[in-house]
């Protein structure tokens, strides 16, 4: 998606060679007009898949998932990283290692919101090592729901996550695939 690639080139910041900061428009301060275009593109890519739920993980994917859900006219579920008093009863859980935070989380979704009859589209801001997506995939499979695919804003194609998830037979559509990046040479897209 040229619009997203151009925005990354303009406002993205590379830190330490493997961190791409897009917090000025994607995952801290959010450009809702850009999100709207991202949502339209995910709808174009997955619009014929009968999506009934969009699933993401807190926190950075929530805004993108919510805007995208408007085009699918379906609810958004976000996997929580901590069990709270608000989640009562049976839950699906999976473990996720956060590349950004260097921590392992148990992610949780209440069983009442993820049903075997659901057709689920995963949405996330980044795909690097694939741990977050693997955790979300496990939740969908544990629920007996149908996974239609994953919509990713930015994939670091030089890291193993995209290949790993695709090797699991999951359709992955990434709007911007970063081939390489460095503070010296900038960003190259696939």
UniProtKB/TrEMBL annotation:
The keyword Glycosyltransferase applies. CDD domains: PRTases_typeI. It catalyses: XMP + diphosphate = xanthine + 5-phospho-alpha-D-ribose 1-diphosphate. It is found in: Cytoplasm. Pfam families: Pribosyltran. Pathway: Purine metabolism; XMP biosynthesis via salvage pathway; XMP from xanthine: step 1/1. Its main location: cytoplasm. Xanthine binds at residues 20, 27, 156. SUPFAM superfamilies: PRTase-like. InterPro entries: PRTase-like, PRTase_dom, Pur/Pyrimidine_PRTase, Xanthine_PRibTrfase. Its EC number is 2.4.2.22. 5-phospho-alpha-D-ribose 1-diphosphate binds at residues 128-132. GO terms for cellular component: cytoplasm. It comes from the Bacteria. Keywords: Cytoplasm, Glycosyltransferase, Purine salvage, Transferase. The keyword Glycosyltransferase applies. Residues 51-156 form the Phosphoribosyltransferase domain. GO terms for molecular function: xanthine phosphoribosyltransferase activity. GO terms for biological process: purine ribonucleoside salvage; xanthine metabolic process; XMP salvage. Converts the preformed base xanthine, a product of nucleic acid breakdown, to xanthosine 5'-monophosphate (XMP), so it can be reused for RNA or DNA synthesis. NCBIfam families: PRK09219.1, XPRTase. Belongs to the purine/pyrimidine phosphoribosyltransferase family. Xpt subfamily. Homodimer. PANTHER family: HYPOXANTHINE/GUANINE PHOSPHORIBOSYLTRANSFERASE (PTHR43864), XANTHINE PHOSPHORIBOSYLTRANSFERASE (PTHR43864:SF1). This is Xanthine phosphoribosyltransferase. It comes from Intestinimonas butyriciproducens. The lineage of its organism: Bacteria, Bacillati, Bacillota, Clostridia, Eubacteriales. The gene is xpt.
């Amino acid at each position: 998606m040229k619009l997203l690639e151009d925005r990354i080139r303009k406002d993205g910041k590379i830190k330490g060679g493997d961190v791409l900061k897009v917090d000025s428009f994607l995952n801290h301060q959010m450009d809702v007009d850009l999100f709207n275009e991202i949502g339209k593109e995910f709808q174009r890519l997955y619009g014929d898949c009968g999506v009934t739920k969009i699933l993401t993980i807190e926190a950075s994917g929530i805004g993108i998932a919510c805007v995208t859900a408007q085009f699918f006219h379906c609810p958004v579920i976000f996997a929580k990283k901590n069990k709270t008093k608000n989640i009562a009863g049976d839950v699906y859980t999976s473990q996720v290692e956060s590349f950004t935070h260097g921590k392992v989380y148990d992610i949780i979704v209440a069983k009442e919101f993820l049903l075997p009859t659901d057709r689920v589209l995963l949405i996330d801001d980044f795909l690097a090592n694939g741990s977050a997506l693997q955790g979300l995939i496990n939740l969908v499979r544990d629920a007996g729901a149908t996974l239609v695919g994953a919509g990713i804003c930015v994939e670091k194609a030089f890291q193993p996550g995209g290949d790993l998830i695709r090797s699991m037979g999951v359709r992955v559509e990434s709007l911007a695939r970063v081939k390489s990046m460095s503070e010296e040479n900038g960003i190259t897209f696939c």
